[in-house]
Amino acid sequence: MPVPVPRQRAIPAVECGPAPAASPDSGPPTEQAPTGTHPADHPATRREKARETTTEKRENPTDTSTGTHTSTGTPAGTDPGTDRTRVARSESAAPTNLTVLLIEDDPAGSPIVPDLLDQAGKPIRVRTARNLTEAGRLLTDDVHCILLDLALSTPAHGSGDAGDEDELAVLRHVLELAPRHAVLALTSSSDAERGAEAVAVGAQDYLFRDELDGRLLSRAIRYAVERKRSDSAERRLAEGRLRAQENRRLERGLLPTPLLAGSPLRFAARYRPGRSRALLGGDFYDVVRTPDGTVHAMIGDVCGHGPDEAALGVELRIAWRALTLAGLCGDELLGTLQQVLEHERSDDEIFATLCAVDISPDGRRAGLCLAGHPSPLVAAPGVPARLLPYDNNGPALGLLPGARWPRMQVELGAEWSLMLYTDGLIEGHVGEGRERLGQDGMVEMVRRQRAEGLRGEELLRAAVNEVRELNGGELADDVAVVLLDRTA
Q: If pLDDT is split at 50, 70 and 90, which confidence band does 6 have?
């Protein structure tokens, strides 16, 4: 009897790694301090000091100090490639945990972000982009949060007087550009409504640019990053639950609904897939009654019990029902099913075992075809349970082109119970050793359970539960059992 062998599947590796640091640019020219302003406090003076610090870093690569990069060009006489490499090395060596991308286009170049420290007291690195094009270039995987000035001019208007729609359009563009990054919106204290609209669109929070201080902004950045992580995890969890629900509904819909209207036979079935948290495996079954009163029952097993085998099992079951209702049976039906299998399987080594029974309208006899499948079990009042003959068992579907499957005629009597099953029921272990239950053990188990008065659904439930207990836990293979009863 062929033993289903699950195919091994490669688990795709997760690729990860830091993105390359973005290249720095030069800043606007130095401006003269207005009257009444201390030279050290003027923005132009601060930018000049920042450029001096950057020059020191270039001359001394081992310096681990950090600063905010707001430049947009390369000084004359400097090799751009060498300069970018040195600055990137300086950034990677900086002892910082968080990186922030500031998107603002203040024409005066005055900094709106104070010095920032993370929760551990380490400096937060700030990159500055003057437009969305620069933002796309500087937005690498090591950026944790984006500070967006809602006064940023749009390409359509080219000035800071953008309308409400244009300002929110910039925010939407940033959200599309960085769906995995936290976004903080910066607006004026007189435009709190704009900040609320930004949060409604998708920003994590909004702040007033004219009331910023280092402590407040650092805390807001940490909060926004953690909130984004929490929202992303919650969204992934909700999506996973939704997919699981859809899969369960789909698999439940793929299980068969027996067509036995007008038949005196009673039907019961039990199904347990081998896959964890699945409803459908490689086993399949079906029962239909044709217009002449004949009841056709089938059970099969595609080698393996993964999702591909489950899909193939559903295809074979539907094909069997269609062919049966079309009037085919026995060797002709199995030969056509083999053609379906050969066309639908993903690998030439995949095969399926199958047991098909057609019960005469009077219910006293049946035709039996076996394709590499275990023989059914039959029991009657006063007669111990036994296996039907399996001497003419043909090959499994998909193994031998042009194979034949002889149909055997068996007598059932006036009152009987016929149990069809897959090999998952008989291949479980018995105890801690390597001994398996086997067909003989299953027959003895069913005899004992019937002697205890178990019938129908209760019998199947008790049989599957006892097999699991004997195995010491869940069975490795799929299990399907179908029971047909006829009473006098």
A: very low
